[in-house]
Each structure stands twice: as C-alpha cells, then as structure tokens.
Amino acid sequence: RRGVMTVRGLVRLLTATILLVGLNACSRPEGGAESAAQSAPEPVSVQQPELLLPVSLNTLMVALVNHAAAPIWVAAWRNPETDRDWRELERMAIQLEVGGALLSIPGTGPNDSEWASNPTWQSWAAALQQTGADAVLAVRARDLDGVARVGDAIVEICEGCHTDFKPDLPTGGQFGELSPTAADFDAGEKP
C-alpha cells in the first residue's frame, strides 16, 4: 500500500535517520555548537507516511493482549512455582506492555483509524501499557499481591475499553473462547 509505513519500514527509517545524524555530528566544523548552528540548513517539511500495523487492532487484542493477560490473571489463583514459571510470566507481562503501546497505532481493521485517533482509545491503550509495565515490576519482584492487583487492573481496562468501543463482539469471533473462567479453576484444568 502506498503511503502506509509498516513497523519494519519505520525501523529502517529510524535507523537511517540515526546514521545520518551520527555522520552529521562527526563532520561538524571546528568551533563547536555555535558554528554548527550558524551553518545549519533550513528545516525541510517532509510528510511521513502513516504508520500502520499489519493486522487489525482486534487481532492484536485477541492474539497478543488477551494471550499475554490470561497467565497474569491465572497467576493470582495458581501461583508461579518455579523460576521457569516466573520467567514465562515475565515474558507475558512484557508482551502486555508492548501490546498496550501497539494499540495506539491503527491497524488494518475497518474501525482501526477511527479508534486509534480517539483520545479515549488512546487513554485505554496507555493505561494497558502502564499496567503491563507494572506487571513486569511485580513479576520481577515476585510480588504475588502486585500480580493480583495488576490482574484486577487488566480486567478493569479491558472491560472499560470494550464497553466504550466494542461491547457486542469482544473478540470478533476470532480464536474462540480465550479467557479462563471460574469453571476452568473448578475443574482443576490448566487454562
């Protein structure tokens, strides 16, 4: 698609920009910042292509956010027991933090541009990103009470955002039933 930049394209653009800035810094004339400021070219306005995720925001929520959130919720009832359990929980917390950040970027879904440009959507995405960061800290500290608080916050954020933006079809029918339910714990199954 023309005029749309993927995440990979953005990374390439940022890498090229950093290299150019570094080269420019190395080739500054003697005399320091004053000389460089006097000879600096006029800024040029460049229109950047819109950054667009390669999937819909719904797919991002179902495949990444929900997938990462479920083990954090479960950890409040089924505490991590081994170092491996804690490392896996940390990976999920990091994915949750990244998922919150990615939700601020439109994807390919029919409502994605509208949602991502909405200040309320941006607030929910930022709250999820911060909650993911809080989850990382709680997991690294092996703080089960902190993990439980984060799990509660995730539920509040997800339910609040779904109430505002998609109350009738939480997963859009993708991937079936995703979240653990009370029945999963009663049956003794590992969700």
- DSSP helix count? 8
Mean pLDDT metric: 79
What structural class results from the helix and strand content? mainly alpha
| Beta-strand residue percentage | under 5%
What is the rounded Rg? 22 Å
Shape: globular
Residue stretches low in confidence (pLDDT < 50, at least 5 long) are 19-28, 32-37
Distance separating the two termini? 39 Å
Q: What is the N-to-C order of secondary-structure elements (H for helix, E for strand)?
A: EHHEHHHHHH
For the secondary structure, the number of strands is: 2
How can the largest sheet be summarized?
2 strands, parallel
Q: Going across the major beta sheet, what is the strand order?
A: 1-2
Helical proportion, percent range: 55-70%
Describe this structure in words.
This protein has 8 helices and 2 strands, in the order βααβαααααα. The chain is mainly α and 191 residues long. About 8% of the residues have low confidence. Helix 3 packs antiparallel against helix 4 and helix 4 runs antiparallel to helix 6.
What would you say about this model in short?
The protein is an all-alpha fold. It has helices at residues 7-26, 32-38, 57-75, 83-102, 112-116, 119-140, 144-165, 182-186, and strands spanning 4-5, 50-51.
Q: What are the salient characteristics of this protein?
A:
single chain; 8 helices; mainly alpha; globular; two-stranded parallel sheet; 2 strands; 63% helix
List the helices and strands and how they pair.
Layout: E1 4-5, H1 7-26, H2 32-38, E2 50-51, H3 57-75, H4 83-102, H5 112-116, H6 119-140, H7 144-165, H8 182-186
Parallel strand pairs: 1-2
